[in-house]
Amino acid sequence: MNRFFPSRNKGLERLKGFAPHAGRDYARLRNYDLGPESHVHVSQLSPYLRHRLVTEKEVLQTVLNRHSRAAAEKFIHEVFWRSYWKGWLELRPGVWGQYRAGLARALDRTKAESGLRQRWDDACNGETGIDAFDHWAKELRETGYLHNHARMWFASIWIHTLNLPWELGADLFLRHLLDGDPASNTLGWRWVGGLQTIGKTYLARPDNIHKFTENRFNPKGLARDAHPLSSQGHPPRGEPPQTPPWNPAERVGVLIHDDDLNLNPLFESDVYPLTFTRLVTCDARSPLAVSEDVRRFAKGAMEDTVARWGARLGTDAGEHETPEAIAAWAKTNQLDQVVTPYGSTGPARDVLDDLDSRLTPQGISLIRVINPYDSMTWPNATHGFFRFKDHIGEFLDDLGL
Ligand SMILES: Cc1cc2nc3c(=O)[nH]c(=O)nc-3n(C[C@H](O)[C@H](O)[C@H](O)COP(=O)(O)OP(=O)(O)OC[C@H]3O[C@@H](n4cnc5c(N)ncnc54)[C@H](O)[C@@H]3O)c2cc1C
Q1: Which of 5, 22, 49, 140 is least surrounded by Cβ atoms within 10 Å, i.e. has the fewest?
Q2: Would you say the CB of residue 304 lies under 6 angstroms from ligand 1?
Q3: 201-258 per-position pLDDT tens digit
Q4: Tally of structural domains, the chain
Q5: What is the pTM of this model?
Q6: Is the CB of residue 78 below 6 angstroms from any atom belonging to ligand 1?
Q7: CB contact at 8 A, 281 and 351
Q8: Residue 135 lies in a domain
Q9: 188 touches ligand 1 (CB under 6 Å)
């Protein structure tokens, strides 16, 4: 039984339980990975934040009810790392396309290049002979979660010791992490490989692993240098997305998707939907099959959202799996508008772009409502995190925290 249950209540319970530890304890102990049953120094809130069963604002608010901004500074920064990565990718969506193209090439190489398929399988199955790495590969598959430090070490060993294409590692994470996120994951892997802060890599060192796993591992044969991967450079930065000006039409349908299950911003206008449908996009995280646990969490989170909001959403039209099917639902119900939370760069945005191109010729508008938290943070992800971080005080003031 996976320890992450997909409901908002479970996420809030976890938040409540962790909040006392989010201050100085977190600053001191967060880098220790003590094993799957003992990730007590970090919140493990990521699957809930990923689908917005629990929001960033709620997390920050609960933590700041217990601690001063100074005491919780490290934890607050980590929550804003998520916002920063999401904003950075939203301003440069082409990086997701580059990653997917690189992944397709790497998958082709596994068919053509002698030995690569076996080395990739061994890494995915935790059969490389590097004790720590093999343990994390299994923990990832069995639990759908890895500690942040383990993700960094794992990605570093994958790229710099095993010399495997980074995109195959990023794909393994997206297929198995319950929090698998196009922004944090792609940019985290790029950062380890020296593609994100161009030329700056992350090297996993045996003594560091030994210390921060409390002597559980003593990996042998790790690379001693981490050379940056060759980079195409960053694509030019675009403009942040905005919610189009809109007034609810008479015939409105709501589309709920697993990229953002917080429906509050949709109902800030007087919307009375006739009908709603669901779209689960987690299968599109990878061209390969995502794990059953990932699917179960995403679908469970969706059902939990429907159970909480159902009375406000009109007639339940069930799940529609493709843009074609959603467009047909909108047409059959003679909708003027389909209103949905903004789906961020990655599979959700790909599907919504496709849907938009099908609805527009039918005279139906797709209104993608951006969460005010994202409108506040994303435009500031223009450069590195250190520049973004300077705005955190203003963000907290704006959130009233
Ligand atoms: C190679 C690599 C891949 C990653 N892939 C993902 C991913 O697919 N999805 C994902 O949510 N995170 C990813 N991360 C970031 C980070 O490892 C996880 O967010 C964190 O480990 C989640 O555990 P937690 O909830 O216990 O974190 P906590 O330490 O309790 O932090 C609280 C919250 O802050 C956010 N956060 C913390 N650290 C980071 C970080 N470094 N970057 C971005 N957000 C952060 C998360 O939302 C997290 O839930 C990745 C990091 C690396 C190095």
Answers
A1: 5
A2: no
A3: 999 999 999 999 999 999 999 999 999 999 888 999 999 999 998 888 889 999 999 9
A4: 3
A5: 0.97
A6: yes
A7: yes
A8: yes
A9: yes
